[in-house]
Design brief:
Radius of gyration: 24 Å
Number of domains: 2
Distance between the termini: 32 Å
Number of strands: 0
Order of helices and strands: HHHHHH
């Protein structure tokens, strides 16, 4: 899967969250303005201010997109990485930790060099673990 697809999904989710929070905040400001029976101009300024405040809060509470760091891209694959490392290590915890570290390093290097994240992750990780095995011998 291409990295930009992950970013598009992230930005779409953040946009939906921002719209939802913005609608709630503007609705709340409108209700408060009508309850206070303010002049229409002041109420409109309050709604715009509430919308801007909602967007600022959304911006502060959201994280960076997945492509910001390679570790965020590798995080969904950690279970597969540990499973492949466990297969290669044959029950030795020290070797398993070494395999996990070297598989993560090799995967990060491939992604930084422009490689796509393949659909068959386990096969790709097994290939990387065989490269890590040649590095460890």
């Amino acid at each position: 899967m291409r990295v930009w697809v992950q970013d598009v999904k992230y930005h779409f989710a953040m946009a939906l969250r921002a719209v939802g929070v913005g609608i709630v905040v503007v609705g709340f400001a409108s209700t408060l303005g009508s309850e206070a029976q303010q002049v229409t101009d002041v109420r409109a300024y309050g709604e715009v201010g509430a919308a801007v405040l909602a967007l600022l809060v959304i911006h502060l509470f959201t994280a960076m997109p997945p492509s910001w760091t390679v570790t965020d891209l590798l995080k969904p694959m950690q279970r597969d990485v540990v499973a492949v490392a466990r297969e290669r290590a044959n029950g030795d915890p020290a070797r398993q930790a070494a395999y996990v570290e070297s598989i993560n390093a090799l995967a990060a290097e491939r992604i930084r060099n422009g490689s796509n994240i393949p659909r068959d992750r386990r096969r790709w990780l097994r290939l990387l673990s065989s490269l890590a095995e040649t590095d460890q011998t």
